[in-house]
Amino acid sequence: MTLTIGEIETETGMTRANIRYYEQEGLLSPRREENGYRDYSAEDLVLLRRIRLLRALGVPLAELRALRDGSVSLSDALGERLAALGAEREAAARAQDVCRAIRSDGATFATLDAEKYLRGDFGAPVPPSDAVPRVACPWRRYFARAFDLALCAALWTAFLALVCRADPTRGRAWPTAISFLSLGAALLLEPVFLRLTGATPGKWLLGLRLEDDRGRRPSLAEGFSRTGRALFYGCGAGIPIYSLVRLWKSFSACRNGEALPWEDELTLTLRDRKKFRPVLLAAAYALVLAAAVLALLAAQFPPNRGDVTVAQFAENYNDLAAYAGLSGQWILAPDGRWTERDRSGGTFVYDLGGRPSDFSYQTDDGGALTAVSFAFAAGSGAYFEPPVARMKLAALAFALARRDVPLGAPEAVGREIALFWAERHEFSAGGAQISWEPSYEGCEALPDSAAVVPLDEGEMSYRLSFQMTKP
Question: What is the mean pLDDT of residues 190-205?
Fold first, then answer.
């Protein structure tokens, strides 16, 4: 048997808005026809009647979800409701006694002695029938927030590496910068998640939900205000030392059941305490970490893949040099020759030496590169560094342009060159043969420090021939 929304309204005595609300909250899932209309079953009708009864008894939405999921029994839920109703009844009885006493005394507002009537616990607040208990669970809340910030950090890491071409692993300032960027992203994104779903990814993973006593999710303005206060008073806005102090104070207050500075009429509820949620959080952490690592590995590959031309090789080289922070005074032009960087913007570029030696290229009939080589030479009186960085960049720009190269190949190529740059060596990568041969006169190499030093005060010279070929 199927029923329309109109028939469901008649049978349950509920308004269409109420029924739609319970659908949005996930308590009801009617079948949809191809035309988009909902078809309600007899089971949906029974479920809505149960929801209406329990809501009339004052059972909160969080308890309804737990009842539907089977994590709470009906007997336990009604036991808690009976206890709450008993407390309300006692508070109401005390309030009636106070009202009678005030009228009997003939007090007016101007002469009302509030302290007299507040004695005897008359001033204890009466909890609303649909109140949702405040969630303590400090560790659950902490890890939910930590996961959200870790997710923002992973997204920023990927964006900086893949789009901005900045290596977040290079330099001491990047971790701090990413931390503040993550706080900013959380401030902008969290209110949107709270408005749409009542939870953030971290809260959803750990079964937390933010809503008021009527089950209403926060508006964007409320979410923005709450998130801003939580990031400042709870996380210390990422400020060193202060953030640790704020985390400890917030943890202690939450553990003791105190209201936190960012909490108001919106209450954080716990949908369930199922044992799989910590496992789910650990798996999500692993996925986020893997995604960040994959982004960093992918960023080490050149932008042009496949059979590259001279111009594409030059673009690959310049891009990888910029990512590694090795862009100097000279960059490769589209014709593959070195050209001075444009300084019209007033940018100062420090360069240790003169113009680098040009690359030599060989191409096939279609213009695709088949070989790249260069020669390097330095003699007495000239300060120089062995071209280890240029060897690595050239290998990445040429040999690793193939699309079937594994993600770990850039690290392997860099390690191979770093280990054997000071001696004659040959290896293959990305289907290309890479080889070099150095020669020393009056000097020797220090492999560990990537330096060449003279043996005495006499003449010295250093030469290197480097080449890469594809079949």
Answer: 92
